[in-house]
Amino acid sequence: MLALAETRFSFVGDEYIYAEISREMSVSTSFKALAVTRELHARTIPGIIDICPANASYLIRYNPDIVSPYDLLDYLKEIDLTKSRPEALNLTSRIVEIPTWYNDPTTREYARRFKDRNESPHFSDFELVMKSRGFTDEQAFINDHASTPYLLTMVGFILGTAWEFPLLLPPDGVFDIPKYKSPRTETPRQAIGMGGAFTVVYPVASSGSYQLIGITPVPVYHPEQKLAEFKDSMFLARPGDIWVHRPIGETEYYSILTQVENGIYRYRTKNFDFSPEQYAQEGKAYIDSMMKGF
């Protein structure tokens, strides 16, 4: 059953309205943030400059010389109310496969270099995540992570960073992976990290505080736009995507890397219409039907 909280609106400075759906992260709040912000994009309201969905909220930037903030607030409340019904949350989406070399030597080396900044210098990042999730067997953890579909709830922070929230968790099953006590000053491009309940792919080499569990040979930020999936945007992620991680080994990692460099790699994707209401009612059976043929 989807539980949709009442949204709280606040003016932020002279140009922003902040809408807080909930203070706690859940799939239902993300579905509502996605539904409202997509509806706002579709209506192309004069005076709105930017629309930013987040994990449990959304932010609207507007031009007060074009639209009255109080008129816009009334408009937002009306749209928000219509998206408070579970049947109004349906969204077009796509599944995207992210080939993942788990516990690879590159991210292991970065974890070793920055171990003094982590929760425990006695564990690698991968081991710390396994321990936090209650796994003692590496393959069992990989199977669990790779069999979980992840909803992209928001994009931001570093160019193209997408927050992947796990589907199929029970309401009391959301885990909380600890982050570094002090961030790494370096993280390799396309490293995969976990922090809190989220998985992320680092789009570029950067600082970071999520625990590193692997690396992918495919870009999520591609300014050259040589690959077909980046024809219309430099960013792979779209809020509302479902990403799945497929385990690969060293040989396939370098094979895909070569295909990417030659501009011939094609992402494995599938478009579909996602029904949050049906997902809430059927759970894994709905996800299994969604993944059929992928």
UniProtKB/TrEMBL annotation:
Family annotation (SMART domains): AHS1 (SM00796)
Highest rank taxon of the organism: Bacteria
Keywords assigned by UniProt, alphabetized: ATP-binding, Hydrolase, Nucleotide-binding
GO molecular function list: ATP binding; hydrolase activity
The UniProt record lists the keyword ATP-binding: yes
Pfam families cross-referenced by the UniProt entry: CT_C_D
InterPro entries: CT_C_D, Cyclophilin-like_dom_sf, PxpB
All residue ranges annotated as the Carboxyltransferase domain in the record: 7-237
Classification via PANTHER family: 5-OXOPROLINASE SUBUNIT B
UniProt name for this protein: Allophanate hydrolase
Organism encoding this protein: Aneurinibacillus migulanus
